[in-house]
């Protein structure tokens, strides 16, 4: 295989106005090799869209999976975020959290489905996020279960509020979740303080397992950085796309 094929990609820049947020939000949409608007595709929605493309190299990863592993081609939607309000939008306690979730479920999804041939079945949608991006992705699945049932979490910030949200559920057998946490993430400094993400993910794992969540959970040597997450993405995407 000519390596140059991995790096050829079509990424469309989009802007969608959000009434919930009261502002425009920029998106980047990856169209897979051989894209044909007469076909239909699974879709992956990524929080921190710019980071997933630039640091996670998700477009190159998807090309490799399509060419080398016969994975079904998918469309990827990266939702950009202003880092100055990221915690406000992604953290369950954040003042913009409710508005962001409403934007995502009620405005972003219809926009993409109106403009691209993505499948509208919840089993053909994947949510992906790192750290707080994993948090908001899980909450979206819990709060909009008619839309989402598949989540990729890269070192999710599953702290007390998220754990309490899971505890409020009796049956999560409908939820499919792929989680990875780095064993070096015992002291992660965030805007809200320093936390032991390993302990938080282990506790969250137990809460999910006792509620029959379909969970794939891994702990590996790794830090709270894209250098770790980038290497985990291929396997996690394959889990949902094959």
Automatic annotation (TrEMBL):
One Pfam entry name: Esterase
InterPro entries xref list: AB_hydrolase_fold (IPR029058), Esterase-like (IPR000801), Mycobacterial_A85_antigen (IPR050583)
UniProt name for this protein: Enterochelin esterase
Organism: Paenibacillus elgii
Lineage, broadest ranks: Bacteria, Bacillati, Bacillota, Bacilli, Bacillales
